[in-house]
């Protein structure tokens, strides 16, 4: 009996595995912490394009289907604390000269 009990009146919504894999791929491609210097965040080659794709997926998939699948995947992938905050701190430290 490994089934999770769902309270009466609540539906379980499962995220499509293809959507989950694509969103996780975008988050991974944003960048990450360098292996040699673990406290330094390194942007991926196409970080700006990844951010634009994430924004597009939030609008097109979540709003169109009236579901929060992409937002849920972004939360599971720890996008805010794991990627966006380090990216913003890099941008701030570099003098905000670049997009």
UniProtKB/TrEMBL annotation:
Gene Ontology cellular-component terms listed: replication fork protection complex
- Identify the residues that the record assigns to the Timeless N-terminal domain, covering every copy: 40-94
Q: Name one GO molecular function term.
A: DNA binding
Q: Does the keyword DNA repair apply?
A: yes
Pfam families under this entry? TIMELESS (PF04821)
Chief subcellular site?
nucleus
- UniProt KW Metal-binding keyword: no
Report the sequence similarity comment from the record.
Belongs to the timeless family.
Its name, as the record gives it, is Topoisomerase 1-associated factor 1
Task: Name its species.
Answer: Penicillium digitatum (Green mold)
């Amino acid at each position: 009996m490994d089934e999770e009990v769902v309270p009466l009146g609540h539906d379980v919504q499962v995220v499509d595995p293809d959507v989950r894999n694509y969103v996780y791929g975008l988050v991974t491609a944003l960048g990450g912490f360098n292996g040699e210097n673990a406290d330094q965040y390194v942007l991926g080659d196409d970080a700006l394009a990844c951010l634009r794709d994430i924004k597009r997926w939030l609008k097109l998939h979540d709003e169109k289907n009236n579901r929060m699948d992409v937002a849920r995947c972004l939360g599971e992938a720890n996008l805010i604390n794991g990627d966006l905050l380090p990216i913003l701190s890099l941008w701030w430290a570099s003098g905000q000269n670049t997009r």
